């Protein structure tokens, strides 16, 4: 991990107390993605971590922005892992626990053949690891191999990295 990217993220991200629920310290990464140098350096660092991936999967919704940028850099396609209820049937689906509440992730069961694809998962924040774990199970159901996960920010107290063991996880900034 480049220290420069980490300090750039630290200088641009915003902390919002008690959002979306009391007790949650929300990390707003909007200013990081809106910064030209921020977006470029994050994309480069994530692409460097993507050894062997032939497809990038971005998690709804900020993972879409980063996922598409990383895919362009790598010369691969991008797959959107959607929140529940957005895709037409047939879908593959996984429900999981969040730091706050529960959620469902879905991908199309038809149309994109994921058998034996090597996939890098991209998201903005790794907290408990529930979201990335659900994405791994989803891609596994589809016959793909997840080669790693890349996130902009890791909340280390929540031990998401351990939950994902032995998956290689690259995080560009840790708090
Ligand atoms: P988790 O499943 O617990 O690893 O949570 C990761 C997902 O929830 C990411 O997609 C984040 O967008 C979101 N998230 C969880 N905690 C926070 C937080 N404190 N600040 C911002 N986003 C968060």
UniProtKB/TrEMBL annotation:
Molecular function GO labels: adenine binding; adenine phosphoribosyltransferase activity; AMP binding
InterPro entries: Ade_phspho_trans (IPR005764), PRTase-like (IPR029057), PRTase_dom (IPR000836), UPRTase/APRTase (IPR050054)
PANTHER family assigned to the protein according to its UniProt record, in alphabetical order: ADENINE PHOSPHORIBOSYLTRANSFERASE
Main location: cytoplasm
Protein name: Adenine phosphoribosyltransferase
Subcellular location: Cytoplasm
GO cellular component: cytoplasm
Enzyme class: transferase
Family: Belongs to the purine/pyrimidine phosphoribosyltransferase family.
Known role: Catalyzes a salvage reaction resulting in the formation of AMP, that is energically less costly than de novo synthesis.
Keywords associated with the record: Cytoplasm, Glycosyltransferase, Purine salvage, Transferase
Pfam families recorded: Pribosyltran
Pathway the protein acts in: Purine metabolism; AMP biosynthesis via salvage pathway; AMP from adenine: step 1/1
GO biological process per UniProt: adenine salvage; AMP salvage; purine ribonucleoside salvage
Phosphoribosyltransferase domain sequence ranges: 35-153
Subunit field text: Homodimer.
EC number(s) recorded for this UniProt protein: 2.4.2.7
Gene3D superfamilies: 3.40.50.2020
Catalytic activity entry: AMP + diphosphate = 5-phospho-alpha-D-ribose 1-diphosphate + adenine
């Amino acid at each position: 991990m480049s220290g420069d990217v980490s300090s750039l993220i630290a200088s641009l991200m915003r902390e919002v107390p008690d959002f979306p629920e009391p007790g949650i310290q929300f990390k707003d990464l909007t200013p990081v993605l809106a910064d030209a140098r921020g977006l470029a350096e994050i994309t480069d660092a994530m692409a460097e971590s993507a050894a062997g991936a032939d497809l990038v999967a971005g998690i709804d919704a900020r993972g879409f922005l980063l996922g598409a940028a990383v895919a362009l850099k790598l010369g691969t396609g991008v797959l959107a892992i959607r929140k529940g209820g957005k895709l037409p049937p047939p879908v593959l689906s996984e429900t999981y626990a969040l730091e706050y509440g529960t959620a469902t992730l879905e991908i199309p069961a038809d149309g994109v053949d994921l058998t034996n694809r090597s996939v890098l998962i991209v998201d903005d924040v790794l907290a408990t690891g529930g979201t990335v774990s659900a994405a791994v199970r989803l891609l596994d159901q589809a016959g793909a191999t997840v080669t790693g996960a890349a996130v902009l920010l890791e909340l280390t107290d929540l031990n998401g990295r351990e939950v994902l063991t032995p998956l290689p996880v690259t995080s560009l900034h840790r708090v």
